[in-house]
Design goal:
Layout lengths: L6 E6 L9 H12 L4 E6 L2 H7 L7 E9 L9 E4 L21 H11 L5 E9 L10 H25 L15
Parallel strand pairs: 1-2, 1-3, 3-5
Antiparallel strand pairs: 4-5
Helix pairs in contact: 1-4, 2-3
């Protein structure tokens, strides 16, 4: 059995809810890049799956989720969030229920269980259509690749500065798609 990679990337969203699938789409692209020492997964229920999926070996957690666009954040733009309370993630919308608890709930549960890594990054990609549909809006579709490249670059930089003592592992393909 291979050792658990020190980096876990979790793309969050719902494939059937328009722009809400953006986090899953970014994770799917990252999974195909096969970054060593990185596990990439997708989650449609991060509130419950996130705390259960974090092991002691995870040193960096990267979350990607859709957020509601506003005047400062037009559809298709993205941002690395420093304070998770600063914006409204799409998962807090009216189409959610207790069976699909949101990212913030997952982070709070992981922190309470003592499994939340010290290094936790949250990336939001902003969207405007969270209705039931299988397509991303054109603006969000255009923002997927730039965000994918940014996350790949920043994770590789983190790995380069934190790599002491790790045995290089193949990337773990996860379950995105």
């Amino acid at each position: 059995m291979a050792a658990e990679p020190p980096v876990r990337i979790v793309g969050c969203g719902r494939w059937s809810m328009g722009d809400d699938q953006a986090g899953l789409a970014v994770a799917d692209r990252l999974r195909h890049r096969a970054i060593p020492n990185v596990a990439v997964v997708g989650s449609e229920a991060p509130g419950t799956e996130l705390p259960a999926g974090l092991g002691e070996a995870v040193e960096l957690l990267v979350l990607i989720d859709a957020a509601v666009a506003d005047e400062r954040h037009p559809p298709g733009t993205s941002e690395r969030i420093r304070d998770r309370g600063q914006l409204k993630l799409a998962a807090t919308g009216p189409h959610r229920n207790t069976h699909s608890l949101n990212v913030d709930t997952g982070l709070r549960l992981a922190a309470a269980l003592g499994t939340l890594p010290k290094d936790t990054w949250i990336y939001a990609i902003f969207g405007s259509n969270f209705d039931r549909c299988l397509e991303l809006s054109p603006e969000v579709e255009a923002g997927i690749e730039p965000l994918t490249r940014r996350i790949e670059h920043e994770v590789r930089q983190w790995l380069a500065t934190h790599a002491s003592g790790w045995r290089t592992t193949d990337s773990h393909p996860g379950c995105c798609g």
